[in-house]
């Protein structure tokens, strides 16, 4: 690929010099650290209904406004009793108790219990005053219309959930930066919290460049391919809880790409440029990004496979990424650099990645001085363990990802991994 506009010899010399200066590779942790030093945790907040807050990031700490449970509840079907009335009870010498009430679900008991009295109760029912335990129904026997035998003793508090046992008024329950899960929403509404303040979703602009790219609904001409990266990136952005904004596909023309990138920067909080694969296209992307605003390009080149040509920048206080055009490289570098940056911008505490331990099925070679990420397929073994089977393929082959269950990292300077080694596989 080549620039679509004419360039003077001086411009081309400048481009080469810029490329050499910018293409100074760093390790992935170093590159991310350089970027995040320039990215503040902004976390602009908005209030949303709790029912709509799944996967949103809390913008403030949440404390409990009430005790939960608010009343003493039975954890079993049986009979609410005074525990002291059952002491010493056995199958051979049961305790006889008079049934004086039946506690209906959703209703308060009709009366308190006195000595030798009990009340029929279901799981979740409210304990009567005077009761301090529940004998489960399987450990009782009815001997008349209003009398039961308790066939074993129960201790005070047995089979009972106490007031505030789950959470007390004023207890911190969810911290700022927490990504809300289904169980969190259930806990909040159980306490009557019907609205929460969360970080605003970020708008992430996606600009795809490449003379060879066409829209998915088009039939590619010879030498052309459908645009993959816009749609895989959009899905990953949605999975991270934000809003993708696809700008479209642009040719390898400096002016066209620069206009598209500048418009995306103005309209969004973050911009991703997915560039062509040639050296000239990568150089052009770096120059476009560097001209969008200060401080410009911070990292151009990471000691990483796939993903070495990655560009990390901050332009006018907004993160800008130049990700490789190859689909596998694009997805790996999104996970390594874009996702943690989005988390930083919203103040999100990222949950640990889901990993499994597996035995590597064959050798993996790696060059020293870089981190390698290799897709693997997981296969079960007869002994109950897992084998990690490498799915090798070039970084422009999307189906290497589709055939894989996860990926593993070959550490910097490891020189590869040997078959039989135990490895940690990050699950997709």
Proportion in β-strands: 25-35%
- Give unreliable regions as ranges: 1-22
| SS elements, strand count | 29
Please name the CATH architecture of the largest domain.
3-Layer(aba) Sandwich
In the CATH hierarchy, what is the class of the largest domain? Alpha Beta
What is the tally of helical segments? 8
How would you state the average pLDDT, rounded? 88
What does the radius of gyration come to?
31 Å
How would you characterize this protein structure?
It is built from 8 helices and 29 strands. With about 425 residues, it is of the alpha/beta class. It folds into 4 domains: about 10-45 and about 200-345, Molybdenum Cofactor Biosythetic Enzyme, Chain A (3-Layer(aba) Sandwich), CATH 3.40.980; about 45-70 and about 165-200, Molybdopterin biosynthesis moea protein, domain 2; about 75-160, Molybdopterin biosynthesis moea protein, domain 3 (Molybdopterin biosynthesis moeA protein, domain 3, Beta Complex); about 355-425, Beta Barrel (Beta-clip), CATH 2.40.340. The strands form 8 sheets. Strands 1-19-21-22-18-14-17 form a 7-stranded mixed β-sheet, sandwiched between helices. The protein has a 6-stranded mixed β-sheet with strand order 8-5-7-6-10-9, with no helix packed on it. About 40% of the residues are buried.
């Amino acid at each position: 690929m080549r620039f679509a506009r004419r360039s003077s010899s001086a411009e081309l010399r400048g481009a080469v010099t810029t490329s050499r200066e910018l293409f100074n590779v760093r390790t992935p942790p170093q590159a991310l650290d350089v970027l995040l030093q320039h990215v503040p945790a902004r976390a602009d907040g908005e209030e949303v209904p709790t029912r709509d807050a799944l996967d949103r990031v809390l913008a403030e700490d949440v404390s409990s406004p009430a005790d939960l449970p608010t009343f003493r509840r039975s954890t079993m079907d049986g009979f609410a009793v005074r525990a002291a009335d059952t002491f010493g009870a056995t199958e051979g010498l049961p305790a006889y108790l008079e049934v004086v009430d039946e506690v209906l679900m959703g209703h308060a008991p009709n009366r308190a219990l006195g000595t030798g009295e009990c009340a029929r109760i279901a799981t979740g029912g409210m304990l009567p005053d005077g009761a301090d335990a529940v004998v489960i129904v399987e450990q009782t026997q009815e001997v008349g219309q209003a009398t039961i035998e308790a066939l074993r003793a129960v201790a005070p508090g047995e089979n009972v959930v106490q007031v505030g046992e789950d959470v007390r008024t004023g207890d911190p329950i969810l911290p700022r930066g927490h990504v809300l899960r289904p169980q969190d929403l259930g806990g909040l509404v159980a306490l009557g919290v019907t609205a929460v303040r969360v970080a605003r979703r970020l708008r992430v602009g996606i600009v795809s460049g490449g003379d060879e790219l066409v829209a998915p609904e088009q039939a590619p001409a010879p030498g052309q391919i459908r645009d993959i990266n816009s749609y895989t990136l959009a899905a990953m952005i949605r999975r991270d809880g934000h809003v993708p904004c696809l700008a479209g596909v642009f040719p390898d023309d400096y002016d066209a790409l620069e206009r598209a990138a500048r418009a995306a920067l103005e309209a969004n909080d973050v911009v991703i440029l997915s560039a062509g694969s040639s050296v000239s296209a990568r150089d052009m992307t770096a120059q476009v990004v560097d001209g969008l605003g200060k401080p410009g390009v911070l990292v151009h080149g990471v000691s990483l496979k796939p993903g070495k040509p990655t560009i990390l920048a901050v332009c006018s206080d907004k993160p800008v990424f130049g990700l490789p055009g190859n689909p596998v490289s694009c997805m790996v570098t999104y996970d390594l650099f874009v996702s943690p940056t989005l988390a930083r911008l919203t103040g999100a505490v990222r949950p640990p990645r889901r990993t499994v331990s597996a035995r590597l099925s064959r050798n993996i070679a790696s060059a020293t001085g870089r981190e390698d990420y290799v897709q693997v397929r997981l296969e079960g073994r007869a002994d109950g363990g897992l084998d990690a089977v490498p799915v090798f393929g070039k970084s422009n082959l999307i189906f290497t990802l589709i055939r894989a269950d996860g990926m593993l990292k070959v550490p910097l300077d490891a020189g590869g991994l040997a078959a039989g080694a135990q490895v940690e596989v990050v699950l997709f």
